[in-house]
Amino acid sequence: MISTEELVDTYPNLYKIDRELHKLVQKIEMLNYINPTNIEQEKRNFFASKYNVNPNFKYKRIDFNAHKLQQALFSQDIDTIQDEETRKFYREVIYDYSGLIQCIESIGKGEKFYFNVLKSFGTPTEKDVQNAQFILHFKDEKFNQEMFPVFNVDEALAYFQEFAKKFDFQYNVKISNKISAAAMVQNNTQTLFLKKNHRFSANQLKVLANHEIGVHMVTTFNGINQPLKIFYNGFPKNVETQEGLAVFSEYMSGCLTLYRLKELAYRVLAADSLRKGFNFCDTFDLLHNQYKLNREESYNISLRAHRGGGFTKDYTYLTGLKKVYTYYKRQKDLNTLLTGKVNIGNADLINTWKEKGIIGDNPHRNFAFDTNNNESETIDFILENLK
């Protein structure tokens, strides 16, 4: 890998634009703004209403000037980047970040937010819905001891601190009551947040460790170590690849269960319900009454889909998993996808940059990718047969 000084000398315009974008996009982290600040209160209200009154979620105010940020993004002189493929890539970066700013700016504004989300994340296709229904046809596995939620958040915190000793990086672990997932990584502060009052099963601890730390933290710290900051800030449309990799990490470590795959399938159906014009009560009813999912899970999945005004991101866990699984089956190098917050569609460009010495090897790896520890024939059958 060439040094930063050599990068500046050899590719001055690329380096300058990459650094400028890095300064601009620090505040564009969707997860900082999309999670409601009153989740628990609205959940109590919703259950008290016998599931008949849509929650009224409140959100953190954005702390940047969206208009000025847009202007600064589009003032970058992308045409000065000499290499055509790299120039085209950075143009996509500008449009992608512009779309994310529009999403963040319209959080809590109903359809306005939803239509911005469609531009940035898309919506499930008919094929995606069929894949979800295919998974839901499988008979539930026997509930084993590992699936019982017996660990509190302090015990979970201790587990993650122990798991982190495998890796050569330091991150923060904090407890929060303002996240919609059981755990979440915040990229720009290298922090793992754990949901307060959540009860974790032994399986869920393994799932979250391999998902959040094995992939999301590894790609954060690998991205930090690359001379091009875009690896840290995120490639255009990187979410599908990141979540696909993270669920694939669960698979390789042997903790991906049919129960977990069904959870991802329900998320696809919840995201699809937005396209049909469902409100929160409708989506909850679909999951709880039609699919007989318990009320806690039905609420959480509905919350994830309806936060902000309609957030479709959750369908990409399944589509991303299939793409990463196919990539692995073709015996391609998974380390390419761990270089940072990258998109599987840019794998060739990443390899080109590596050949030119613009980027270097990953300092951190995901140990789960060393060996396939999946022992479930059902999981293999499902992954092979997703369309």
Briefly summarize what is shown.
With 387 residues, the chain is mostly helical. The chain is 55% helix and 5% strand.
Low-pLDDT residue spans: none
Number of continuous helical runs: 18
Strand order of the largest sheet: 2-4-3
What oligomeric state is this? single chain
Could you outline the blueprint of secondary structure elements for this entry?
Blueprint (H helix, E strand, L loop, with lengths): L3 H7 L1 H13 L6 H4 L4 H10 L17 H9 L9 H22 L5 H11 L4 H11 L12 E3 L1 H11 L8 E5 L6 E4 L4 E5 L4 E2 H23 L5 H4 L5 H14 L5 H18 L4 H11 L4 H12 L9 H14 L17 H9 L21 H9 L2
Parallel strand pairs: 2-4
Antiparallel strand pairs: 1-5, 3-4
List keywords for this structure.
three-stranded mixed sheet; two-stranded antiparallel sheet; mainly alpha; 387 residues; 18 helices
Description:
The chain has helices at residues 4-10, 12-24, 31-34, 39-48, 66-74, 84-105, 111-121, 126-136, 153-163, 202-224, 230-233, 239-252, 258-275, 280-290, 295-306, 316-329, 347-355, 377-385, and strands at residues 149-151, 172-176, 183-186, 191-195, 200-201. The chain is mostly helical. It has one domain. Strands 2-4-3 form a three-stranded mixed β-sheet, covered by helices on one side. The protein has a two-stranded antiparallel sheet with strand order 1-5. 43% of the residues are buried. The model has no long low-confidence stretch (mean pLDDT 95).
